[in-house]
């Protein structure tokens, strides 16, 4: 599918989509905590669906009630199928691999798209230290794991992704970890670990002592409250990652009210508000929503090392800011759905926005007219959304090839733009 986005002025209210970061963690927690979990405001993105499919294959029973809540009934990891497919979800592959290793059965873990080429040799090194048999295809998928996990003191590298740590923390919490630590070197994306620990706490799981993000200690005294007889509710909060595009859209082309966002959220991408404030965006806060309106914008500096998923909306914002915007943290962009530093440079270059890459820094030259044209999503949901936001205030329409990439995280994105007054033409293509 291709999407043509025409220059538009937005106006209106919209509710943010459900956070896939919270939704996927809730699915994992519901699996390993046992009992009955009622997940309210469940996500429907491809990554969310992948997580739901995984936990079904690992033993849970799923159903939706009349209110649209997801009902999860679990007795822990008890595989019904010995192959799980993580789709294109980086979080799923990194979080569910240690959880699959809770089983004494051999589980094959696969994925598709860019996930097939992402490095997974982390597990080849770490899981054998936990008594788990593991094999991979030269550090790539598919993986084969056979547990059960035996928690012990380990030291890991946190520089590639915090998602590996998320899976280990959850795994340790339900596998009898006692007086053991996970030492982490150079941890990135710390707010995502805050989110993981928050979800664990809400599910009654054993939560380790966080020693300045360098050590996570599971004491012998702290006990788990998980139970196969438990009944709990969990509400998936609004997604700051998806909402970042809506907020930037309001800042560059109109006036948008976004409902459903928690200003106290542990989500890393809540930091978009800091960048918007620095750029001079007109922002108003209300009890139930955030309103952001078009204004004259200025270049800004922002360190996105802890929130690399913000690079695409930040570039869309910087394109309309007068002067040179400096974004730090491009080293975090190599192993995403695409190499995002390069794809942002190419995509926005086609729209007449020069981007220079220097070591760990991206320099965006803004304030000049954004051109229309044809760009490719590179099968990356955030590249597609960034191009769509830039198109709202371009000189002419922008056609996005393989625009369906948004389904990974925000399937309703184009529809939400239309609800706000955006002019969007979706065209089916012959494959």
What report would you give on this structure?
The chain is of the alpha/beta class. It folds into two domains: 2-17 and 238-427, Enolpyruvate transferase domain (UDP-n-acetylglucosamine1-carboxyvinyl-transferase, Chain, Alpha-beta prism), CATH 3.65.10.10; 20-219, Alpha-beta prism (UDP-n-acetylglucosamine1-carboxyvinyl-transferase, Chain), CATH 3.65.10.10. The protein is built from twelve helices and 24 strands. It has helices at residues 20-33, 46-57, 90-100, 121-126, 163-173, 190-202, 240-252, 272-279, 311-318, 340-350, 381-391, 413-419, and strands at 2-6, 10-15, 35-40, 61-64, 70-74, 83-85, 106-110, 133-137, 140-146, 154-157, 180-185, 209-211, 215-218, 231-235, 254-259, 282-285, 289-293, 301-303, 323-328, 355-358, 361-366, 373-376, 398-401, 423-427. The strands form six sheets. It has a four-stranded mixed beta sheet. Helix 7 (240-252) runs parallel beside helix 9 (311-318) and helix 7 runs parallel beside helix 11. The longest helix has 14 residues, at 20-33. The protein is globular. The termini are close together. The relative contact order is 0.15. The mean pLDDT is 95.
The CATH class of the largest domain is identified as Alpha Beta
Q: Quickly count the domains.
A: 2
Number of strands: 24
Subunit arrangement of the protein = single chain
| Strand arrangement across the biggest beta sheet | 22-23-1-24
List the total number of helices.
12
Strand content: 25-35%
Biggest sheet, in brief? 4 strands, mixed
CATH 4th-level superfamily of the largest domain: Enolpyruvate transferase domain
CATH topology (level 3) name of the largest domain: UDP-n-acetylglucosamine1-carboxyvinyl-transferase, Chain
Global geometry = globular
Q: How much helix, percentage-wise, in residues?
A: 25-40%
Tell me what the CATH architecture of the largest domain is. Answer: Alpha-beta prism
Radius of gyration (CA) equals 21 Å
| Classification by helices and strands | alpha/beta
């Amino acid at each position: 599918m291709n999407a043509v986005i025409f220059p538009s002025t937005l106006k209106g209210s919209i509710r943010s989509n459900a956070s896939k970061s919270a939704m996927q963690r809730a699915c994992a927690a519901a699996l390993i905590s046992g009992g009955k979990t009622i997940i309210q405001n469940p996500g429907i993105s491809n990554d969310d669906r992948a997580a739901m499919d995984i936990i079904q294959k690992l033993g849970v029973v799923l159903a939706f009630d009349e209110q649209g809540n997801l009902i999860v009934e679990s007795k822990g990891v008890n595989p019904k199928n010995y192959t799980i497919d993580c789709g294109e979800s980086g979080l799923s592959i990194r979080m569910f691999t240690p959880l699959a290793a809770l089983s004494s059965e051999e589980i094959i873990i696969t994925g598709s798209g860019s996930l097939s080429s992402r490095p997974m040799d982390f597990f080849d090194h770490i899981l054998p230290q936990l008594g788990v048999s593991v094999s991979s295809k030269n550090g790539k998928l598919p993986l084969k794991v056979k547990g059960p996990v035996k928690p012990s003191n380990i030291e890991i590298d946190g520089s590639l992704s915090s998602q590996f740590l998320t899976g280990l923390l959850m795994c340790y919490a339900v596998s009898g970890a006692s007086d053991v630590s996970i030492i982490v070197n150079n941890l990135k994306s710390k707010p995502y670990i805050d989110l993981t620990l928050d979800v664990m706490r809400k599910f009654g799981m054993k939560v380790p002592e966080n020693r300045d993000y360098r050590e996570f200690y599971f004491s012998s005294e702290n006990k788990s409250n998980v139970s196969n007889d438990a009944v709990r509710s969990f509400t998936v909060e609004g997604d700051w990652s998806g909402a970042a595009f809506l907020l930037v859209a309001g800042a560059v082309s109109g006036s948008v009210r976004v409902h459903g966002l928690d200003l106290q959220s542990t989500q890393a991408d809540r930091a978009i508000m800091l960048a918007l404030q620095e750029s001079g965006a007109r922002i108003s806060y209300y009890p139930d929503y955030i309103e952001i309106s078009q204004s004259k914008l200025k270049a800004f500096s922002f360190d996105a090392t802890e929130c690399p998923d913000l690079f695409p909306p930040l570039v869309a914002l910087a394109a309309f800011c007068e002067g040179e915007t400096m974004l730090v943290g491009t080293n975090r962009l190599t192993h995403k759905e695409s190499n995002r530093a390069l794809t942002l440079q190419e995509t926005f270059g086609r729209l007449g926005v020069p981007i220079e890459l220097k070591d760990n820094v991206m320099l965006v030259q803004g304030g000049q007219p954004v051109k229309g044209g044809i760009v490719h999503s590179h099968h990356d949901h955030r590249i597609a959304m960034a191009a769509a936001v830039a198109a709202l205030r371009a000189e002419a329409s922008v056609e996005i090839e393989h625009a369906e990439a948004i389904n990974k995280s925000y399937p309703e994105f184009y529809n939400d733009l239309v609800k706000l007054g955006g002019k969007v033409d979706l065209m089916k293509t012959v494959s």
